[in-house]
Amino acid sequence: MKALFVIDVQKATIGKTHDKFFKYDEELINRINKSIEENETVIYIRNLMKNNFINKLAPVHVFDGTIEAELSDEVIKKGNVIFDKYKGDAFTNPKLLDYLKENNVDTIEIVGVDGGGCISLTALGAIDNGFKVILNTNAIGTMFNKKKEKYYKLLKEKGAEFK
After folding, report:
1. I want to staple 78 with a disulfide (CB 3.0 to 4.6 A). Which of 37, 42, 93, 114 is the partner?
2. Fold classification of 2-162 (topology level)
């Protein structure tokens, strides 16, 4: 079974209220929503920061329980499956892998932000955990292009599919 991962599509990163730090194509949310509409199983992944002194100095604060951490108002909510992560790779949350195994997921399609960070790191984590990975490049936003190119090359070598 295939599941769609919608990664880091939160109020801080994308949509009408996103922070100025994040500069993604305004049409990206529409392409993400199209992917959500086309998939039966949708899993939302939220990126959170630990609420500590160093992170309070960061330009953007995405702490659990804050408005910035919530899913973007513009993203379609299909189901209520949401997992949180504190690192780039969503598989650092062991509950995610348990959920995927319990629901017989063997293929993961990925959309969201950022292609040069959490998208690629999660894709690598998925491959390392035995999943087939599809990166839907039309619905992936990237600000960190040099890192994206490096990661995409590695992902191709490891068998990820790009569409």
Report:
1. 42
2. Rossmann fold (3.40.50)
